[in-house]
Write a structure and sequence with these properties.
Blueprint (H helix, E strand, L loop, with lengths): L1 H8 L26 H11 L26 E4 L7 E6 L8 E7 L11 H8 L4 E5 L13 H12 L10 E11 L1 H10 L7 E5 L19 E5 L7 H10 L6 E5 L14 H16 L2 H8 L13 E5 L3
Parallel strand pairs: 3-4, 3-5, 5-6, 6-7, 7-8
Antiparallel strand pairs: 1-2, 2-4, 8-9
Helix pairs in contact: 3-7, 4-5, 7-8
This protein binds 2-acetamido-2-deoxy-beta-D-glucopyranose (NAG) (3 copies).
The site of one 2-acetamido-2-deoxy-beta-D-glucopyranose has 3 residues, from loops.
Length: 314
């Protein structure tokens, strides 16, 4: 018992062929992430500047709206999922079933406010999102863990708490996140077959010695990154190549640096990319699919200045 306690208190130590049962770790972001101390060392070595911006970076923060989709959205606090914020249509839609998303913030922060424009935009297209943290961040922890994102998945799949937001479809469940929250979304999806899609923003695995864990990813992965100035960019290039053979993957890059377009009106081009990806994946929307895959399609991501690569999708 004592040994077990000691072992579970230790951080995950990567070793080829060693696959832990879950993606949990003692550090925020889980087994695919690194500690804040190791991040400082990594940045000093590589010279990456997480604050670098690009030609497509939003200038300042736009005011929040209810999103541009057919189901105007808002934030909710919910006593059945404390320490989280719900983004959902203001009125439960009666004419659609809603895919569900567990979201992790940049820095694994415990306040999702900086991503609100983006999350409201997605919710307004008929999605229920449970985001780590609450406005003000007073959850009792400085960073979110895999257990926090798993609590969102449990809330969607096991309880009845999510039903008041409408007709949720728990067979259409994605983990998504920015930076540390993106790695948290991959760590949470690892060995949890309730998760059907992983969507990561501006981040890939930092540590080369952890990349072998990608062999255990069984669902399609989409990455939205911020061009060569984004510290996530070189790692996403590596991760994309190392997914299991045959697994569909999507990778789009826009010159924003690490910060993405979250602060823009309705979450900017990153939200447009995410909404179209989700509509394609979870609602078989062919127009949305074309925007992602066909550069010549009206409103394609390529026409929005994204550089796009994908595999195992036709
Ligand atoms: C559901 O109703 C809303 C509001 O009336 C409408 O905008 C939306 O297009 C409808 N969705 C579907 C899938 O019919
Ligand atoms: C739920 O989502 C799955 C996966 O996208 C889809 O196949 C199914 O048709 C959806 N169910 C409903 C009732 O919308
Ligand atoms: C693409 O980038 C160019 C150069 O920065 C810019 O002028 C143009 O408006 C961008 N296109 C779109 C659709 O945003």
């Amino acid at each position: 018992m004592l040994l077990r306690t000691l072992l579970t208190a230790c951080a995950f130590v990567p070793s080829p062929g060693k696959f832990p049962a879950t993606g949990d770790d003692t550090i925020a972001g889980g087994i695919f992430c690194l500690s804040l101390t190791d991040l400082a060392t990594y940045l000093a070595k590589t010279g990456n500047n997480p604050g670098a911006t690009g030609t497509e970076s939003p200038k300042g923060s736009a005011a929040a709206t209810s999103g541009s989709g057919p189901y105007p959205a808002q934030t909710f606090t919910d006593s059945t999922l404390p320490k989280h914020t719900i983004y959902a249509p203001k009125k439960p839609p009666t004419n659609v079933t809603m895919p569900v998303i567990a979201w992790g913030n940049g820095g694994c922060a415990t306040d999702p406010t900086t991503h609100s424009n983006f999350l409201l935009e997605i919710a307004s297209h008929g999605y229920v999102i449970a985001a780590d943290g609450i406005a003000g961040g007073k959850t009792g922890a400085s960073q979110s863990m895999v257990t926090d994102m798993r609590a969102s998945i449990d809330w969607f799949t096991k309880g009845t708490g999510a039903a008041k937001y409408g007709n949720v479809n728990t067979s259409a469940l994605a983990t998504m996140g920015h930076s540390c929250g993106g790695l948290e979304s991959m760590s949470t999806a690892y060995h949890d077959d309730r998760v059907k899609r992983i969507v990561m923003f501006n981040i890939g695995i930092f540590n080369d010695e952890k990349r072998y864990l990608l062999q255990e990813i069984k669902v399609p992965v989409a990455w939205f990154v911020g061009g060569p100035k984004d510290m996530g960019y070189p790692n996403v290039e590596k991760d994309y190549k190392l997914l299991p053979a045959g697994l569909p993957a999507y990778k789009a890059s826009l010159d924003t640096g690490h910060g993405g377009t979250f602060a823009a009106t309705n979450g900017g081009k990153a939200a447009k990319g995410a909404v179209n990806y989700l509509e394609w994946q979870f609602r078989n929307d062919e127009t949305a699919k074309a925007k992602l895959l066909d550069p010549k399609a009206a409103g394609s991501l390529v026409s929005d200045n994204w550089t796009v690569q994908f595999k195992n999708w036709t």
